[in-house]
C-alpha cells in the first residue's frame, strides 16, 4: 500500500532580523537596513529588502555592504528579541501540528498531513499561519506548500516576500526541470559550479543523468540529487531537531604544502563556519580540524575550549593551533576542513538558563 | 646514607601524602618524595608548589642525609612487597637508591635533594586549634560547591572566616552558595583566608577517622595544618572573596517544609526526565501540595509527581537544576528541610529545620528560568 501523500509546509520569515528591527523602530522603515556589526571586520547577519536592492546580502562583509549601499544603516542584533519572536511563531505552528522542524529562528517545516484542527487543506492552514503571524507579530512570512520538504522549501522561496506558493504533484516535475541548479536547496556554490562544468545547469539537465553517474561524481549525496531531480524527497519532518555541529571543508585542485597557503584556506573556512554559527544563532565550544593527505589518509585534530566562541578570528586561531600541534602536516594536503560542535543555541539561552548570583 | 624501615609503615606514610603529587608536575623533581634523615627521624615531603605535605617517622639510621626518590616506582614497589624490614642504601654522589628486601634488590635513580623546592615554614601570628571531625565536616558540607572556573580564582577555594564567636566556611560556584558556621570553636581573633580546593580535598582525605586536634596557623600567604605526625602547607588564594552575605536574602516569605528523603528521592526520579543540558526540574507549590515535574522537549520525555508538604506562602512555580538540589539535599542530615523562596528568579534558601546548637547550615541556590511556552 502506498503511503498517503504528505502535506508539508515550509514557513520562512521575510528578512527576519531586519524586519524585526524595522518593526520596532519606525525610523528604519522603508530604509536599507543591515543587522550586524559595522566595524571593519563585521559581517551582515541580515539585510532588509531595501538593502537587498543594492546588492547587500547576509554574510557579506560589512565593509563591502557599506560600499554597495552608502546609506546603509547598521543595527546591532538583538537576539533575545529574535528568539522571543521565534517562540511566538512556533507557538502558532504547534497549534496546528506537533511535527514542527525548526531549521533556525526564522524557518521551519511543518507536516500537516494530520493536524490538530482536522483541516484537509494544507494551503488554507499555510494562509492561516501567515495571517496569524502577521496579526500576532506584525511581521510577514512566506509559505511554501507541497508534498515533500524539498519542494515546500523551493515553494516558499518562489514568491518572496509575503508569498504563498503551492506545488501540486502534477506540476512538481515540470517545475523542478525548469529550475536553475543554483536554486536547489542542498546544492551549494561549489557543487553548482561543478555541475555547470559537467553541463548541468537546470533541473532538466540533472534529470538526464543516471544515478550511477551522479554518485560517481558527487559521492553518496548523488543519490539525493537523483531523487530531487524527480521531485522525490522522502525525508521526514523531524521535530526538535537542532544541528549538533557546523562545518565547512574544501578539497583543493592542487595539494597544499606551504603553511601560508593552508592558513589562508583556514581563514576562509573559519569565516564560513562563523557565518553559519551566526545564522543559527549559536556558539560552539569544540573546534575540529580535518586534514586529508594526498594519499587520502584522513586525520582530525580537535580542541574543546572553556568558553563558547562564534567569531571567525577565534575559530581561525584555534584551527591554526591545531594545524601546528603536534606538528604541521608533513605530507601534501588535499583537503582542509573546520567543524565546530558542542553548540549552545541563543534560543536555549534566552528561555532556559541557570541564573547566577550577582556578586 | 642507609636506613632500615618497615615496608608497610613506610608505605602508609607515603600514601598519606602522595595525593599532593600532580600527575604532570610543572617541574619533574616534583614527581619525587623528598627523604631527609635527621637523627633517626625520616621526614618525607611531597609537593606541587602550591601545596606541600610532610610526614615524619622513626627509622633505624646511623647517619643523616637527603635524597629525592621517584614516587611512582617506590610506591608500586612497596605495595607489592610483603611486610618486612627493607634497607635503603643511598649513594649521595650518584643519587642511586637501592632497596634490599628478603625478596631481592631493586635499584632506582633518585635526584639531588637540593633541587627539591623549599617548603615555606611557619612564621605566623594567627593560630587556632580545631577538632579534626569538625574540620572534616565543614569541608564536606561546602567543598562540592567550590567553583572550577579559573577565571574567577577567588571562588576556586573555600572562604574561611574567623569571627569573635564563630568560624564560617563558605563555598560558591556562582549558582549556589554554601555557608557552614560553627559556634563552638574559640577563635580569639578575626581574620579571613581562602584555602584552595585541592588543599582541603587532600586534608579531608588525610584526616584520621579517630578525633584529634588540628592546629591551624596562617599568615598572609600560607596556611599550615598540623596533626599527629602530618603537616600540610598551602598557598592561600590571594584574591578578594565575593561579598557573599550580600546575596543571601534577608527574608524569603514563602516557606516550604518537607521530608528531606521524600523530596530527594522524588527529584532523583524526576530528573531522569529532565533536559540534559539544564537538568531543570519544576516545582509548583500550591496549598499543601508540591508538584515536581520535568520535561525534555528534545525527546518528548516528561515526568510528574505530587508530594505533600507544609507550605506557608503564595502559590508559585520555580525551576531548579536537579543536580544542585540532589547534591545539597544529600548533604543535609536532618529528616526535614525547609525551602524558602521569594520569586522564580531569585535565590532559594535550603536549610535543615533543626540545627545542632553548635552549628548553622545555609544553602542558597539560584533558579533556572522557567520556559513557559510548552
Strand order of the largest sheet of chain B: 14-11-12-13-26-25-24-18-22
CATH architecture of the largest domain in chain A: 2-Layer Sandwich
What percentage of residues of chain A falls in helices of 4 or more residues? 25-40%
Number of helices of chain A: 14
What structural class results from the helix and strand content of chain A?
A: alpha+beta
Radius of gyration of chain B: 25 Å
Summarize the structure in words.
By secondary structure, chain A is of the alpha+beta class. Chain A is 40% helix and 23% strand. Chain A has helices spanning 16-24, 49-52, 62-68, 79-94, 122-137, 149-158, 169-178, 189-197, 203-208, 211-218, 221-228, 259-279, 312-324, 346-351, and strands spanning 8-13, 33-36, 44-47, 73-75, 100-104, 107-111, 141-146, 164-166, 245-256, 282-293, 298-309, 333-341, 344-345. In chain A, helix 10 (211-218) crosses helix 11. Chain A starts with 7 loop residues before the first strand and ends in an 8-residue tail after the last helix. The model of chain A has no long low-confidence stretch (mean pLDDT 87). Chain B is α+β, with helices and mostly antiparallel strands and 374 residues long. In chain B, strand 15 (213-218) and strand 16 form a beta hairpin. The mean pLDDT of chain B is 92. Chain B has six helices and 26 strands. The N and C termini of chain B lie far apart (75 Å). The interface between A and B is medium-sized, with 16 and 30 residues.
Main traits of this protein?
heterodimer, A: 359 residues, alpha+beta, Alpha-Beta Plaits, 5-stranded antiparallel sheet, 40% helix, B: 374 residues, DNA Polymerase III, Chain A, domain 2, 3 domains, 42% strand
Provide the fold topology.
The complex is a heterodimer of chains A (359) and B (374).
Chain A lengths: L7 E6 L2 H9 L8 E4 L7 E4 L1 H4 L9 H7 L4 E3 L3 H16 L5 E5 L2 E5 L10 H16 L3 E6 L2 H10 L5 E3 L2 H10 L10 H9 L5 H6 L2 H8 L2 H8 L16 E12 L2 H21 L2 E12 L4 E12 L2 H13 L8 E9 L2 E2 H6 L8
Helix pairs in contact in A: 4-5, 10-11, 12-13
Chain B lengths: L1 E5 H11 L14 E7 L2 E7 L3 E8 L1 E2 L3 E6 H9 L5 E7 L4 E5 L4 E5 L16 E6 H11 L14 E6 L4 E6 L3 E7 L8 E6 H10 L6 E6 L3 E6 L2 E6 L18 E6 H12 L8 E7 L2 E8 L4 E8 L1 E3 L3 E6 H9 L5 E6 L6 E5 L6 E7 L9
Antiparallel strand pairs in B: 1-5, 1-7, 2-3, 2-6, 3-4, 4-17, 7-8, 8-9, 10-15, 11-12, 11-14, 12-13, 13-26, 15-16, 16-17, 18-22, 18-24, 19-20, 19-23, 20-21, 24-25, 25-26
Helix pairs in contact in B: 1-2, 3-4, 5-6
GO biological process, one term (chain B): DNA strand elongation involved in DNA replication
GO molecular function (chain B): 3'-5' exonuclease activity; DNA binding; DNA-directed DNA polymerase activity
Subunit structure (chain B): Forms a ring-shaped head-to-tail homodimer around DNA.
